[in-house]
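re: that chain from earlier
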Amino acid sequence: MTSGGAPARAEMIREFVGSARFAQAISLIAIGLAFSTHAIRALIGWPGLLAALAGLLVLCAASLVTRWRAIEWYGILPLTILVFVGWCAASVLWSTTPGASAARVVYLVAFAVLGIYVALMRDTIQIVRAFGDTFRLLLGVSLALELLAGILIDSPIPFLGIQGDLAALGPIQGIFGSRNMLGFVALIGFITFIVEWRMHIISRGRAIGSVALALGSIVLSGSPTAWIALGAALVALAALYGLRRVPGVSRWRWQLALLVTGAAALITGWILRIRIIELLDARGEFDVRLDLWRELSRYLSLNPLQGWGWVGRWPDAPPYTWLEAGAGRPHESALNAYLDAYFQVGVIGAFAFAALIGVALVRAWLLASNRRSVVYLWPALVLVAVAVTSAAESFALYEGGWMLVVICAVKAARDMSWRDALKRS
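^ sequence. v structure.
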C-alpha cells in the first residue's frame, strides 16, 4: 500500500461528505426521523431514537464542516428563534424539574439544528421535493399497516397504537400515534403535493395519486383539526392566487383588505365556535380540550411570567401529573401550542413563540404574494396550517412540527431579512 493511500481515502471521504448527494440523503433522513419518532420509539425505544438522532447530528456537523466556505452564514437565524430557544434554555434555572428541562432543551435544540441544516443545505424546491418523497412513504406505510390491521388480520397493532378501524372507515392513526398527528402530516403532504404538481416536479399521474393519498388520509383520520386547517390553507391559497395577479402598485391595498377580512373571519369564527364544532362533529374533542384548559388555568396564575420550565412533551412528573389527574385522562401536551408555551415558559415564552410563528408567516406571505415562482407558496401555506393547527394541538413545539417551523422561518428570513436591508442601506 502506498504512503499516499490514507490521504487519498481521506480526500475521497471529505468529497463524499461535502457532496450535494450526501446533503440530499441527510435531509431525507432528517425529515423522515422527525416525523417518525412515535414509530421509532415503539420499535427500538427512547435509547434507539436518541442514538439515531445523535448519529444524524454528527453527520450534519461533518457535512457543514466540509462545506463551510460555500455557506452564507450571515443572518442565518431569525432573532425570533434565538429568543424563543434562549428563553426555553433559561427556564431550566427555575424549572420544577431541572433535569428533565435541561434534557428537553437539548432535544429541542437538536431538532432545531436539523431544521437549520435542511434550510441551509437545500433550496426551497429541493426542500419541497424532500418533504414530498418522505411524506409519500410515511403516508403509504401508514395506510398499508392500517389495511393489514383493519382488513387482512382484523386485529390492532398495539405497540404502534394502530386500532385497526379501517374497515369502519376510521378513525385511523397510521404510524403517528394519533389521528390528529396523521391528519397534520397528511395536510402538510397535501400542500407539498399540490406545489410539486404546479412546479411540474413530478408527473401528473404521480401528483394525482399523491394528492389522493393525502386527502384519503385526512378523511380516514377523522381529525376535525385537520379539516379546519385544510379549510384555512385553501382559503389562503385562493387569496394568494388572487394577490399574485394584482398589479404590484395596488397590491398593498388588497393585502390590507385581506388582513381586515381575516380578522373579521377570526372574530366570527370565535362567536360561532360552538356551531362550527357541532357541524364538524367535534364536540367530544372540544370538551376534552376545554376540561384540560380549565385545569391549566388553575396553575397558570402561579407562574404567569416565567412558567414551570420547558419540557416539550409532558413528562410523568408534577405539575403535569396533577393536570392529568384533574382532567381525568392522560395527556402528552396542553392540546394548544400557544397555551403549552404559556404554561411551560410563561408570558414571555408564549409571546416569543407567537412572534416566531407570526413573523415567519408574514415574511412567507409577502414572498408568496410578490415572487413569481410557485415554490414560495409552500412556506406560506405550511405556516398557515401550523398556525391554525397550533390552536388545537402542540405539534409545533416538538420534533417534526418544530423542525418544520424552523425550516420555514429560516427560509423566509433569508429571503426577506431586515438585517440584509440594514446592511445594504
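Residues 337-370 form the longest helix (34 residues).
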